[in-house]
Amino acid sequence: MEKKKEPLFVALSNQKGGVGKSTLTILLASYFHYRKGRNVLVVDCDYPQHSIRDIREWDIKTVEKNEKLQGKLLEQFEGSERKAYTVLTSTPEDAKQTAYEFLDRSETSYDLVLTDLPGTVNAAGVFRSLVNMDYLFVPVTQNRMVMQSSMNFVLAIRELLSRNDSFPLKDIRLFWNCMDRRVSKELYRAYTEIFRHLKLKTLETVLPKAERFNRGICTDGQVFRSTLFPPSPSLLKGSHIDLLADELETILGLTD
């Protein structure tokens, strides 16, 4: 039997809640899995609420009640033979163990394990889980408190890595989420300069502030944030989720 390749473990995390990490984890998982054809596993460690698990359950119930959505799901499966990606639940400290218990049983070779961690580093095992990821991407918003907290978060992880080079974490990058065009660009430029001064890496992709990021499955068949479908093309346009996925593919070395 051919040996399965080792998946990349990726976390979207921030010690501040409300920055969109769970929503972006779902969007990226669905885009990579259903649109890009990557085999994705999601580990929901946002204990105890497990919001991604709850959204998967809501998605299933919504489809069960709507024949049009059932047809859409069947058409998607017949076109690609791709089943819905698995969502596991775990505590932060057991994230990798939970993933590997599933991966070892699976006959599928996975490309990505996306991990959603709590919005506080005070939760048990969060720091340990983060430094045992392969890559960490940190969404930030224009809020000053979020920015200060996010920088402290990344600097603390970088300091921990500098004292122990045995941790797997290869790269940490911040990226702008919920960018409101009406807000002065001075704040954006000021923090970009601070990032540069502190040698904090950032992604080029900037995600706009848009109501669609709160939109799940609609009965008219339009979808944005869903664990069962990729974003609908009309809603994907201008969201920059496709650009973010392309940039992450390059960083992660998944462009083959």
UniProtKB/TrEMBL annotation:
Database matches in CDD domains: ParAB_family
Signal peptide: none
InterPro entries linked to this entry: CobQ/CobB/MinD/ParA_Nub-bd_dom (IPR002586), DNA_Partitioning_ATPase (IPR050678), P-loop_NTPase (IPR027417)
SUPFAM superfamilies referenced in this protein's UniProt entry, alphabetically: P-loop containing nucleoside triphosphate hydrolases
CobQ/CobB/MinD/ParA nucleotide binding domain span: 11-218
Protein name: Conjugate transposon protein
Gene source species: Phocaeicola salanitronis (strain DSM 18170 / JCM 13657 / CCUG 60908 / BL78)
